[in-house]
Amino acid sequence: MRRYLPDSPQAAARVVALALLADGHYSREELEMLDRLDAAGQLGLSRAELHEVVHGLCEDLLYSRQLTWAEACQLDRATLLTVLDELQDPFLREQVLQLCVDVVAADRHVADGESLVLCTAMDHWHLPRQRPLNQRLLMSAC
């Protein structure tokens, strides 16, 4: 798994990409939500740079495990925590979590893998679950 500088736009984008891919695929609604939110701009990246991070994550997941695509999208806990640790800034963590929740909610379904990424991030970053992000989604996910 490639490493990014702490609190870099790429490190933040990778967490969003993990939420996007956590169920083994991404939907048209999720991609449209990224554009509607200007997720790339919010993270300090161009749209092309955001897609490079998503592509890089896909490569890392596929090269790290010789499994089917859906299984490859399931990070082990230690790797997930390592990726989450690349974000140290509390404001950036909040911003990234909001983007993750919005992307996951775009297709109106929370898959197990998506739930795992959201709940692990909230727990690891010590963020409360009673938040204005999307209360119903978070409560059903975690």
Short description:
The protein is mainly alpha-helical and 142 residues long. Helix content is 66%, strand content 0%.
Fold topology:
Blueprint: H1 9-21, H2 28-37, H3 39-42, H4 47-64, H5 69-72, H6 77-85, H7 90-105, H8 112-124, H9 135-141
Distance between the termini: 26 Å
Oligomer: single chain
Spell out the helices and strands N to C: HHHHHHHHH
Query: Average pLDDT value?
Result: 85
Number of helices: 9
Overall strand count: 0
Shape: globular
- Tell me the fraction of residues in β-strands, as a range: under 5%
CATH top level is: Mainly Alpha
Unreliable segments (pLDDT under 50, ≥5 consecutive)? none
Number of domains: 1
Content-based structural category: mainly alpha
CATH topology: TerB-like
The gyration radius over C-alpha positions equals 14 Å
Tell me about the biggest sheet?
none
Helix content: 55-70%
Tell me the CATH architecture.
Orthogonal Bundle
InterPro entries: TerB-like (IPR029024)
Organism: Ideonella margarita
Protein name: TerB family tellurite resistance protein
Question: What does the model show?
Answer:
This protein is mainly α and 142 residues long. It has a single domain (9-141), classed as TerB-like (Orthogonal Bundle), CATH 1.10.3680. Helices cover 66% and strands 0% of the residues. It is built from nine helices and no strands. α7 runs antiparallel to α8 (112-124). The protein is globular, with a radius of gyration of 14 Å.
